[in-house]
Amino acid sequence: MKKAFFQRVTDEEQKKVQCYLCAHNCHIKEGKRGVCQVRENRDGVLYSLVYGRLISQNVDPIEKKPLFHFLPGSLSYSIATVGCNFRCSHCQNYDISQYPRLNDGEIIGRSVTPQEVVSEAQEYGWGSISYTYIEPTVFFEFAYECAQLAHERGLRNIFVSNGYTSPEAARKIAPYLDGNNIDLKAFTDKFYREVCGAKLQPVLDTIALMKELGVWVEVTTLVIPGWNDSDSELQEIARFIRNIDPEMPWHVTRFHPTFKMTDRSMTPASTLQRARQIGLNEGLKYVFVGNIPGEAGENTICPNCHETVVARMGFSIMSQNLDGDRCGSCGAAIAGVFAGSPA
Q: Against a cut of 0.70, is the pTM above it?
């Protein structure tokens, strides 16, 4: 166990605490846990139950996060604990994200130190550490200590996030966080309430704040038939991203039926092409189709000369035409974090 960050006592006599790590701002009674199921009030003090308890350690292409304008072609050491502050009906990693909820609060995972995580990433020459598979905010204390140490040793740090991080937590991690792919799952509170058990506005606030804090941000929308695939909703998402930064990449990706959402069909490729065109029409410079290897819309195209800068097939880089952070054909700047960018 580790004493949790971002807590305040709200009732000393009854030993109640408030957790403000994420936007749920849970008020937690003694002996109880927050929405994430991995932070528990013990005798009036909140503890993380998953500090250093890793359930997953893998090496992934950075494109799998997905991050397309962040060290393309590199490998990222990817780690996770159990738990999540969302309860998404379509979660592809529900077996770990919902593990405590589905197993009477049990916490599992192999005990690892930040030093071991960072040293392993260094030893094998992986350029970054990704805190992923579940919402990394819920294992913030461990991620923060890993990120600090990784930063000192010249490694990059990446969150793959649902965007429900509190402003206080975002500001604390930002000096050590290089990239953040944030899910913008839909543009209605109905979706967030009924599908995720959350609200929309905190996600919008986090995307804007992370950008303001200097973190490289890419946004992903899993396009689900009948839920968030209308022209109007896709336009609203695209306009929101454009108003923050038209060079912020937007990934529109294919949904596969899973977990509790098996009543929907797989997203047609034509829907994703329509979503991509809506993003481009709204002024976004980089819109990518995902989860369909070989489908048009995977490549980075220079917005100036329209030549292919990075050619992809799924998670694989087929070719690059970059000169640092510039198009190799016309010299126009390409937004992102590329080889040679300062750490």
A: yes
| Separation between Cα atoms, residue 227 and residue 8, nearest integer Å | 37
Instruction: Name the 3-class secondary structure at 168.
Output: helix
Beta strand 316-320 with 308-313 is: antiparallel
pLDDT tens-digit series, residues 29-76 = 999 999 999 999 999 999 999 999 999 999 999 999 999 999 999 999
Report all structural domains of the chain as residue ranges with CATH numbers, in order of start.
Answer: 2-48 (no CATH), 53-327 (3.20.20.70)
User: Where does residue 296 rank: exposed (0-12), middle (13-18), buried (19+ CB within 10 A)?
Assistant: exposed
Our CA angle for 254, 93, 228, nearest 5°, is: 35
Q: Rounded to an integer, what distance in angstroms lies between the CA atom of residue 87 and that of residue 22?
A: 14
Q: Which helix (H) or strand (E) holds 18?
A: strand 16-19
How many helices (DSSP H) and strands (DSSP E) are in the chain? 9, 21
User: CA-CA distances (angstroms) from residue 102 to 192, 226, 248?
Assistant: 21, 28, 36
* Paired sense of beta strands 45-48 and 39-42, if any: antiparallel
Q: How far is CA 293 from the centre of its chain?
A: 21
**Sequential DSSP letters for 249-261:** -EEEEE---BTTB
Query: Going along 25-140, which residue ranges are E strands?
Result: 27-28, 39-42, 45-48, 53-54, 56-61, 75-80, 110-111, 128-131
